[in-house]
Amino acid sequence: MQLFENITLAINGLRSNKMRALLTMLGIIIGIGSVIAIVTVGDAMTGSVESVFNDMGANSIQLYISDKPDEYGNTDWNRPYANEDYISQEMIDAYLERFSEEIAAWAVTDSVGPGQIAAGRRESNVYIYGTNAGALAIQNIDVVAGHDLNEREVKGEKNAAVVSSAVIEKLFPNLTPQQALGQEVKVRVSKGMYTFTIVGVYNYEVTGFAASMTGDTTRQMFIPVGVAKKMMTGDDVPDGYYALQVKGTSKVTDVQKFAERSEQFFNRTFYRGNKYVEIYAQNMDSMIQQMTGMMGTMKLAISVIAAISLLVGGIGVMNIMLVSVTERTREIGTRKALGAKNSAIRVQFIVESIIICMIGGVIGVLTGTTLGRLGSVLLGSPGWPSLLSVFVAVGFSMAIGVFFGYYPANKAAKLDPIEALRYE
Amino acid sequence: MEEEIMTPQDENIIIDMKGIYKRFYIGQPNELEILRGIDLRVKKGEFLSIVGASGSGKSTLMNIIGALDRATEGDYVLDGVQMRDVPDSQLSSIRNRKIGFVFQTFNLIPRTSALSNVELPMLYAGMSGGERARRAKELLELVEMGDRMKHMPSELSGGQKQRVAIARAMANDPAIILADEPTGALDSATGRLVMDLFHRLHREQGKTIVLITHNPELAAETEHIVTISDGRIVSRQQGGEVRAAV
């Protein structure tokens, strides 16, 4: 009934008092805007992280050494790892033999740290990692020229290197990656100067938020792990490794079970006598779950803040509606004299309140979309708010309009027409 | 108001009041008796004025006539409807269909065009949009405001506002036009024009008009002058002196 007239009337009223309308809507705008922005950024980040983890392989697991709690459940965080705490090559060999059916590939990584790579006068910064043969494939690093470090180079501890196409472009601007193979480069680290031969060039790019987690992958340089150990500074460079990454074959159907069995194998066979350290296995699924769980908590926290903001916004709307009812007492009296039923007056004011909140909601959605888009682009995982969240936001702001508009509207509806007409 | 309660009586009588009392603060120490037994009959097509000093009870009487308020005691039959039997929730319908209010301060709805103002009572009556607009235009032309239909109240002079208000009062073809000091906020020349409009509506449209005023000169123009004092009708005279001169 008279819906169109009520909407026109409400909009005319708002237009004649723009500043007040905007200030009233502010709470709703901030509340809705922040929810939309955060949800957009959160969804984009979760999506990007998930896709990277999925690229890495759904049936991959990571084995770490971690502190073993004592009988009181405490761990000594300050104790440095001893040489025998690390995962040794012997353990890996035994593990590979025991699980030969289920392991498709494995990787160990040792970080030498930052260094400079030079060819003639041209230089580039790199971050040097020692790895085993076939490790790059498991890390989703795509070798576009030459080859991944092979068994001969790793076992023989040859000075062979795999670098990125970006580094090749910098060192050999006139050569294609293919032509750069076999070129000798000088590598300087804190311990000294080494000469390497380029055997492979990779083209690895992870875009988005995940890049900030995995580091700048265009500057990585991979060398045999034995060579890397010699280049590392310090007297106590361990013989073993901190972590082992394993990719399962198609025989691995339950990656969680596989992770548990691998963990048990290491702990029972090698770490039973170790008082301080044990092996902890993690699969990608559980990492994703951790990540999404974290995002969920963050979203919840923001939603609570947004809910408070909407509550405050709603109270603001109620306040302004009460002011409006008082200001328009004579108008209400006139309408009643002309034959408006109480319900017609109530509907008129509720519609006005809904209009304020909905306009606020729409502005909030637009603001939130802009901020969310901006934020997700800055974080490198561009995303848009879902249609559902937009509908929910606008619907919710309508509900706020009804809820906080009802009391003032009811007050208007119940005014005595004689009193209202006499109101100055 | 489909279930109007018709009473067997002369259908030419629009207002039939018998022994109307109105008391406020009933049962309290400051109980106030404003109307003390009003008997009033107004025939169809009559132009009647109710005069009285402020505090005489004429506003209270107007509120009861206009279905804005109820009598504490007594019978009031409005256009065949026994008001005592009308529930509170239906009073708005009675006002909507049977009464056309004209106020001293015009009371046009702000930020709403003259046309929409005139449409308002029809809107509340549930009339369709096209029909409303057509009738509102007719009425505005009748009060010679046809060229100002799209204007907002703030763009109209006092006299123009009152003409729009009169058109609005006529919207649902009410049984009575109830005008409360309609010239009170206007200068004498504009007030004259508004009074002439009432005379014209009365003469040409056969409208029943009840004019509430404290101004004896205006009252003298009407057919009947009911003087009220201290809650009682003290005289009912023939008027029409100035009208004859128009």
From TrEMBL, chain A:
Could you name the domain of life of the organism this protein comes from? Bacteria
Q: Which PANTHER family match?
A: ABC TRANSPORTER PERMEASE YTRF, MEMBRANE COMPONENT OF TRANSPORTER-RELATED
| Entry keyword annotation includes DNA damage | no
Q: Which UniProt keywords apply?
A: Cell membrane, Membrane, Transmembrane, Transmembrane helix
Keyword presence, Cell membrane? yes
Its source organism is Harryflintia acetispora
Q: Name one GO cellular component term.
A: plasma membrane
Q: Which family does it belong to?
A: Belongs to the ABC-4 integral membrane protein family.
Know the name of this protein? ABC transport system permease protein
Where, per UniProt, does this protein localize? Cell membrane
Q: Which residues form the ABC3 transporter permease C-terminal domain?
A: 304-417
Bilayer topology annotation: Multi-pass membrane protein
| TM helices/strands, residue ranges | 21-42, 300-323, 344-366, 386-407
Q: Which InterPro entries match?
A: ABC3_permease_C, MacB_PCD, Macrolide_Exporter_MacB
- Where do the MacB-like periplasmic core domain residues begin and end? 22-256
A single Gene Ontology MF term assigned here is: transmembrane transporter activity
Automatic annotation (TrEMBL), chain B:
Q: What Pfam families does the record point to? A: ABC_tran (PF00005)
Q: Which GO terms describe its molecular function?
A: ATP binding; ATP hydrolysis activity; transmembrane transporter activity
UniProt-listed Gene3D superfamilies: P-loop containing nucleotide triphosphate hydrolases
Question: From what superkingdom does this record's organism come?
Answer: Bacteria
- Where do the ABC transporter domain residues begin and end? 15-246
> Which InterPro entries does the UniProt record give?
AAA+_ATPase, ABC_transporter-like_ATP-bd, ABC_transporter-like_CS, MacB-like_ATP-bd, P-loop_NTPase
Keywords of the record, alphabetical order, are: ATP-binding, Nucleotide-binding, Transport
Gene Ontology annotations for the cellular component aspect, listed alphabetically: membrane protein complex
- PANTHER family noted in UniProt: CELL DIVISION ATP-BINDING PROTEIN FTSE (PTHR42798:SF6), LIPOPROTEIN-RELEASING SYSTEM ATP-BINDING PROTEIN LOLD (PTHR42798)
The family assignment reads: Belongs to the ABC transporter superfamily.
Name of the protein described by the UniProt record: ABC transport system ATP-binding protein
